[in-house]
Amino acid sequence: xxxxxxxxxxxxxxxxxxxxDIFRRADIEVITVSITNKLEVVGAHNVSVLAxxxxxxxxxxxxxxxxxxxxxxxTSNLSKHQGLKDLILSQAAKKQNIAAICxxxxxxxxxxxxxxxxxxxxxxxxxxxxxAIISSNKMVHSGSFFTAKAAGVSxxxxxxxxxxxxxxxxxxxxxxxxxxx
Length: 181
What we know:
Shape: globular
CATH topology: Rossmann fold
Number of helices: 6
CATH superfamily: Class I glutamine amidotransferase (GATase) domain
Strand content: 15-25%
Oligomer: single chain
Helix content: 25-40%
Structural class: alpha/beta
Distance between the termini: 26 Å
Order of helices and strands: EHEEEEEHHEHEEEEHH
CATH architecture: 3-Layer(aba) Sandwich
Strand order of the largest sheet: 5-2-1-6-7-11-10
Radius of gyration: 15 Å
């Protein structure tokens, strides 16, 4: 399994970098994808990250998970990228995994993908989760969609995805190694 993590100008750094670290500790291949026309992407708190590849250069063919970090204006910028939205629609049609945290679940909600699914997002964005069942949990796995509330659960959210992809033992080993309760 491969994870494509999408970066837009103004992404929330913790929501991207912490999961990348956790996924790589689990020996999951993570490819960071810039939706801009350059590899360097600047986060919401002025942290620059060098993506692995630019969106237009990726050949999405095998099974993979889409990961969308939130942040503002990162979420808005992701939402404006038609190629990414087309990829999300294709992934959803195949019932392949899509993960989004903080404001990013609003992208899925506005596309109508969370209808009748349990989901969570950053407080204040719930109205964008069209016809979703809004959860009171910090993280939710509903069908092929993983959603999480905010930056503060980034590590736990990544561990939840690792548990689903690689098993509880792998997630527990990483959790123990980094001293997460």
